Amino acid sequence: MVNRKVLKPEASPEAAFGMRLRELRDKRGWTQDDLGARMGCTGTHVSAVETGRRPPTGRFALSADRALGAGVLFQEMVHALHNPALLEGFPEYVRQELRAVEIRLFELGIIPGLLQTSQYAAAITTGAVRRGTITEEQAEERLALLAERQASLYRDPPPFVHAVLDESCLRRQVGGPDVMAAQLDKLLAFAERPTTIVQVAPFSLGEWRAFDLPLYILAMSDRSLMSYAESAQQGRLERDTRFVHALLTSYHQLQAESLSQTASVAMIEQARKGTP
């Protein structure tokens, strides 16, 4: 134990896999050799995967799931590891989001996934397929994951969700007038829920808008915080409280500068009237 390597799951998907493998192994009181014997490999192989020196394979993940009674946890992690349809860091973010008690988000250009209708989400993924950035199979996986995330909003008790949308989310038409009209209706209904706040950051904020990229901030039941931000090429889950608190401060400033929920709902209703 003296020379046990400290694992940093936020470093990479491989590191997150290794950390989860170690956690479940430790929970059962097994050594790496114990787990290896149950998986049909050596303890040295287990050690190499845990510490990120060797990437996990599909076969390794299947054996780990069976040995540890983890369902398909490790198989899904390996699938996400090799799945270009999901940005690095996003699969781990989703696992945390499903447990979060508070979700704060900021989005640009499109309605955030948690608030999308199935038709709106399908239009987004169809566009990605037509551009050749993902396959039809990957599009189906994205939609299935989105449905799982949305369902978690209705768990008991539900998480508190504070959504700040850039005005561009309302003005950019996705899927045609009918799809957009239904999407704005859902957004209005979402704003009426007792555990949600919806605000719009208007174009008039100009350079005073706090963020230029989408951002998610999670609060867990133990009051720990983490954030997730992404660009077109990569995503990053951040657990370092120094950085997360700085983002939370900027988010609070964005809340203060954005339209109130009443004014935001009025803007959404106005945008809705522009569609049939």
| Domain module count | 2
Could you tell me the number of beta strands? 6
Task: Supply the CATH superfamily name of the largest domain.
Answer: Endonuclease Chain A
Helix-and-strand structural type: alpha/beta
CATH class of the largest domain: Alpha Beta
Portion of residues in beta strands equals 5-15%
- Major beta sheet, specifics? 6 strands, mixed
3D architecture notes:
This protein has 276 residues and is of the alpha/beta class. The chain folds into two domains: 13-81, 434 Repressor (Amino-terminal Domain) (Orthogonal Bundle), CATH 1.10.260; 90-112 and 153-273, Endonuclease, Chain A (2-Layer Sandwich). It is built from twelve helices and six strands. A six-stranded mixed β-sheet has the order 3-2-1-4-5-6, sandwiched between helices. The chain is elongated, with a radius of gyration of 21 Å. It starts with 12 loop residues before the first helix and ends with a helix. The mean pLDDT is 89.
Annotation keywords:
276 residues, alpha/beta, 434 Repressor (Amino-terminal Domain), Endonuclease, Chain A, 2 domains, six-stranded mixed beta sheet, 12 helices
